[in-house]
Amino acid sequence: MKVNVWCVYVFLVMSVTAQALEEIHGTVRDPNGVPLEGVKIQVVLGGREVVKTDQDGSYTIAYNPRFLGEDGPAIHIVAQDRLRNLAVALPVNPESDTQDLVLRPALTIAGRVADANDRGIANAQIRVTYWMTSWGTTMDPSGPQPATDAQGRFEITALPTGSRYSLAVTAEGYGRTNLSVDASETVDRRLDVGRMTLAAANRIVSGQVVDSEGRPLEGIRLRIYGEGQPDGQTTTDDEGRFTLNVCEGAVGFMAEGRLDEREVSCRATTMAGTMDVRLVVTPGRRSAHRYIRSKPADEILTTGKFVAGRAVDESGQPVAGVPVNVNAIRREREPGRFSWTYSNYNTLGDITDREGRFIIEVEEDAAYCLLFSPVHQAALMVYDLPMGTKDYEVILPEGGTVTGRLVRLQNGQKVPVADTEVRIAQTSRASYSHLGFDQDRTTKTDAQGRFRFEHLRRLYRSDRYTGEQSTRIWEVSSLGLTQTVGFFDDAETVDIELVVKPKLEDATPLKGKPLPAWETLGISVETEPLVNKRVLVCFFDYEQRLGRRGVSQLARQVETLAVADVAVVAVDVSSADVNALQAWADDLPVSLMRQMTTDRDEARFNWNVQSLPWLILTDAEHAVVAEGFSVEELGAHLAQMRLP
What we know:
The chain is mainly beta. It folds into five domains: 14-114 and 126-134 and 155-170, Immunoglobulin-like, CATH 2.60.40.1120; 203-287, Sandwich (Immunoglobulin-like); 297-395, Immunoglobulin-like, CATH 2.60.40; 400-500, Sandwich (Immunoglobulin-like), CATH 2.60.40; 504-640, 3-Layer(aba) Sandwich (Glutaredoxin), CATH 3.40.30.10. Helix content is 7%, strand content 43%.
């Protein structure tokens, strides 16, 4: 089966954002004050372009000011002159658009790249990252990267002194290595980091990528990761097969692609030399991690260092293909006192076989917390299994189901919102209860706006010490809306409705337009008393003192307004008791007092009611002439209409 390849690249894009870029101008000079031509200028953490000074030493470079931040890291401007081995790095001055730079003698980092037998590796590529606190940016990403000579030696010049750097070294046919460099260790502005060793990529990992039905997938992109591993990647052939050259040790995989217009992925780890790896993709960008062991179960059993068992469904049938991973390790620090370590134990796991059996090889005498991540049952955490556990049986629950409908309010009607992404996520991020980000899923609504999420864990361990279980809460979100759901009272299914309401800030002013229909407010107003009369509509909140005060002020002007043929309609937007509202209104000479009964957000949108109280005045034809003014400003508007 062929799929469309997709690959996600994550960049910290600093030059293209909604916020406008700003420019810095200046002149670059050497220590003697002479302007320098051809000096490379780069803004670190605020831009990605690299510019060069002109013949007068002048430069202009853009940066994004949003990275300045009051408490965040400062943006730095870096200038490098490799010809003269001069450089400088300074924080950008946000108070000025001019910043002249004076270069100083620069730092040189030297070293040698070799293989495990101390043979120099030629043309090894070195990426240099400039660090500011926890942020780092590649130096001169657009230019050629430093590389080793025939003997594997390298020298990196024109680095600003007093800074922190890291070196990432790769070479064809080898893995990679990284090194952090503190420039404070320099002697005479030169730092020799010694030998950096690259492991040979002389091992092979091969296998096949399939879907949940076992069908091979063509065109799935795979990339490998892991400590010391090369930046290798490939694409599956028409039989879903792949082969990658790797280094000795653990090898991580990320497989990504599209299947039937859906994103699919798989994360897995195995050991170098493992053949016939089977990677099963699941929907979504995030999948449960799978450890594909290379040792047979009998061999692991002889060591005595394992945790093993069997996974079955609620009917007792074995469940195959379930990723099982160590989520935490509990160690006894002293008699009766324990500590838990939560981490990403990529090499401590297994996948259940046809009989539902699994075995995880461990290294220490401790208790292990296991996370089971099935596709057709709910994920489950099992706690504190001691090393040597052999026949533990775990029952994978069917889990709960959340169904729902996404609708949009439109003219008082609920209209389905089709083909729109809906997401469900765990609200608890506690390490001892989180089921993995693969359980946070997305789907799309159908033509009726319906969506469905199945096999959701209904409980969670609310106390890691006592093992007490509580109702697990999930959060459903779409189009900026969120709603939390839980399976209370042993409910197996929860149905919800997400209603997209119009945004008040997007409402259109009414001035110059006919007054909207009263029915949009869910009220009935007799039209006869309003014929050939100007109408003053007052939206207010009865439960707020300011609202009651505004209506009371209008009530004192009712007679004057009646003489001017102005009818007053007061509309309460609150949910107050109708009898209480009417009792209060009976003491006021405002005959047309109504309480809104439709959705308040939609009604306010339709009438452009931006705040409360809110006054709208029409002419005799009921076209709006003014809106959003205060009671005190009413007289001025009446005067403009040449009314008393």
